[in-house]
């Protein structure tokens, strides 16, 4: 839908207000979506760099938004999880969402930054999640009010699902009426080197200097609706940082090693090393192996002065330091690769478990189909037996009726044949009686009368 002129003006004002910040922050595209106005620039039904989960349905992807929970049915869940972890110690996460629903609708919207979010959290909310390691920012109608934004932290030891009062674990909150605004709401999470804060629609919600989230965590968005459902829509999630090269992938205990690596890098650059590939410039056999800059062995007789001995010792110690630094970087990269492969393996195992669960349901359906097939065969046999019995009964009835009807016709013919003798006798007898009665009447009429 094309925006109206006032909305365009508002968009320009917001862009102008954030121009100073945009000049200092850079987009992390593999942790973001929707920043170009479209969820998928290719027009496909997917979110690049993110994975979708949902119950009972997967979130719906439109051109400019992702609908985590539909207006119906209720008790639905939806989630969008980033495939790549956040490797920056200082960052800004900008999320635009909107909630629509009936007058008494309810639900909750959750912004996560947790380790192994897709596996440990999935499509759960703060009230149904078990153990997780990281941050959860929850938007819901806590306490029956118009709305509230609250922050929760967990180090992986607290099981939120078994807590008698999850709401008491919040470390920061602010009131915010988020439902049925007719426009997207903007939540910004900012982490700098000395504080963490949350902003809503350009104003401060809460901040603290006691929270600093480590690197290696995944961003995710989840929503859950109730019996009277709210529809939660996400228009964008944008992650920015001040320096794209300033990644803090290693844990804090390795900071000294990182500093040592930086010093080694400077020494390597001064000593004829290429800073891009950590390779010697023109040295070695093929220029691809990191140990091709080895100092050739020399006879001790060739070192005739203290200065030459010190130079040879210095060069060899420097070479050893370079080799140790290369080994450390190789081991660190292998550890990162192993961790990533472990996460990929865990994700694959989770997918395999889901497929196995579906296969179990298919086995159950196959057993039910076999049972139905046996029941149908038995029913056909029973119907065949019943049909045969009905045919036999019909034949028996026909034979019985044929015999009975023949005897009955003979009986009716005998019993209902006319009897003329009786009829004649009755007629004649009646006439005789009438004549006798008339004669008696006449005699009585002509007989002499007696007077008293």
Automatic annotation (TrEMBL):
<feature type="compositionally biased region" description="Low complexity">
    <location>
        <begin position="254"/>
        <end position="264"/>
    </location>
</feature>
<dbReference type="GO" id="GO:0005789">
    <property type="term" value="C:endoplasmic reticulum membrane"/>
</dbReference>
<dbReference type="InterPro" id="IPR051136">
    <property type="entry name" value="Intracellular_Lectin-GPT"/>
</dbReference>
<feature type="domain" description="L-type lectin-like">
    <location>
        <begin position="30"/>
        <end position="242"/>
    </location>
</feature>
<feature type="transmembrane region" description="Helical">
    <location>
        <begin position="423"/>
        <end position="441"/>
    </location>
</feature>
<feature type="signal peptide">
    <location>
        <begin position="1"/>
        <end position="22"/>
    </location>
</feature>
<dbReference type="InterPro" id="IPR005052">
    <property type="entry name" value="Lectin_leg"/>
</dbReference>
<keyword id="KW-0812">Transmembrane</keyword>
<dbReference type="GO" id="GO:0005793">
    <property type="term" value="C:endoplasmic reticulum-Golgi intermediate compartment"/>
</dbReference>
<dbReference type="GO" id="GO:0000139">
    <property type="term" value="C:Golgi membrane"/>
</dbReference>
<dbReference type="InterPro" id="IPR035661">
    <property type="entry name" value="EMP46/EMP47_N"/>
</dbReference>
<feature type="region of interest" description="Disordered">
    <location>
        <begin position="245"/>
        <end position="264"/>
    </location>
</feature>
<feature type="region of interest" description="Disordered">
    <location>
        <begin position="271"/>
        <end position="299"/>
    </location>
</feature>
<dbReference type="GO" id="GO:0006888">
    <property type="term" value="P:endoplasmic reticulum to Golgi vesicle-mediated transport"/>
</dbReference>
<keyword id="KW-1133">Transmembrane helix</keyword>
<feature type="coiled-coil region">
    <location>
        <begin position="362"/>
        <end position="396"/>
    </location>
</feature>
<protein>
    <submittedName>
        <fullName>Legume-like lectin family protein</fullName>
    </submittedName>
</protein>
<dbReference type="InterPro" id="IPR013320">
    <property type="entry name" value="ConA-like_dom_sf"/>
</dbReference>
<dbReference type="GO" id="GO:0005537">
    <property type="term" value="F:D-mannose binding"/>
</dbReference>
<keyword id="KW-0732">Signal</keyword>
<dbReference type="Pfam" id="PF03388">
    <property type="entry name" value="Lectin_leg-like"/>
</dbReference>
<keyword id="KW-0472">Membrane</keyword>
<dbReference type="GO" id="GO:0030134">
    <property type="term" value="C:COPII-coated ER to Golgi transport vesicle"/>
</dbReference>
<keyword id="KW-0175">Coiled coil</keyword>
């Amino acid at each position: 839908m094309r925006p109206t002129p006032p909305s365009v003006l508002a968009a320009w004002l917001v862009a102008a207000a954030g121009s100073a910040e945009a000049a200092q922050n850079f987009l992390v595209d593999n942790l973001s979506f929707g920043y170009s106005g479209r969820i998928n620039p290719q027009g496909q039904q997917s979110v690049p760099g993110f994975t979708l989960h949902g119950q009972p349905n997967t979130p719906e992807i439109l051109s400019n938004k992702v609908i985590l929970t539909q207006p119906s049915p209720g008790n639905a869940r939806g989630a969008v999880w980033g495939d790549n972890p956040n490797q920056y110690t200082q960052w800004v996460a900008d999320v635009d969402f909107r909630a629509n629903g009936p007058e008494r609708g309810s639900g909750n919207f959750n912004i996560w930054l947790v380790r192994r979010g897709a596996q440990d959290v999935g499509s759960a909310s703060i009230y149904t999640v078990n153990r997780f390691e990281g941050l959860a920012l929850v938007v819901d109608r806590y306490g029956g009010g118009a709305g509230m934004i609250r922050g929760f932290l967990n180090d992986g030891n607290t099981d939120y699902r078994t807590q008698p009062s999850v709401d008491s674990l919040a470390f920061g909150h602010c009131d915010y009426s988020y439902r049925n605004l007719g426009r997207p709401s903007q939540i910004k999470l900012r982490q700098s080197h000395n504080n963490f804060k949350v902003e809503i629609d350009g104003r401060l919600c809460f901040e603290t200097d006691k929270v600093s989230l480590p690197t290696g965590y995944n961003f995710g968005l989840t929503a859950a609706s109730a019996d009277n459902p709210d529809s939660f829509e996400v228009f964008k999630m944008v992650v920015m940082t001040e320096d794209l090269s300033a990644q803090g992938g290693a844990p804090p205990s390795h900071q000294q090693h990182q500093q040592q690596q930086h010093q080694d890098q400077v020494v390597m650059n001064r000593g004829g090393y290429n800073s891009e590939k950590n390779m010697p410039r023109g040295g070695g056999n093929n220029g691809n192996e990191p140990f091709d800059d080895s100092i050739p062995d020399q006879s001790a007789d060739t070192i005739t002065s203290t200065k030459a001995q010190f130079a040879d010792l210095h060069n060899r110690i420097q070479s050893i330091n370079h080799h140790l630094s290369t080994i450390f970087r190789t081991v660190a990269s292998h550890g990162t690769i192993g961790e990533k492969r472990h996460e990929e393996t865990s994700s694959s195992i989770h997918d395999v478990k889901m497929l196995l669960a579906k296969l179990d349901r298919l086995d159950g359906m196959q057993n039910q189909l076999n049972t139905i097939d046996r029941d149908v065969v038995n029913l056909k046999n029973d119907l065949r037996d019943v049909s045969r019995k009905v045919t036999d009964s019909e034949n028996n009835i026909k034979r019985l009726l044929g015999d009975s009807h023949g005897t009955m016709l003979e009986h009716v013919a005998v019993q209902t044949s006319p009897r003329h003798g009786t009829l004649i006798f009755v007629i004649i007898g009646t006439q005789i009686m009438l004549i006798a009665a008339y004669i008696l009447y006449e005699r009585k009429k002509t007989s002499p009368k007696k007077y008293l």
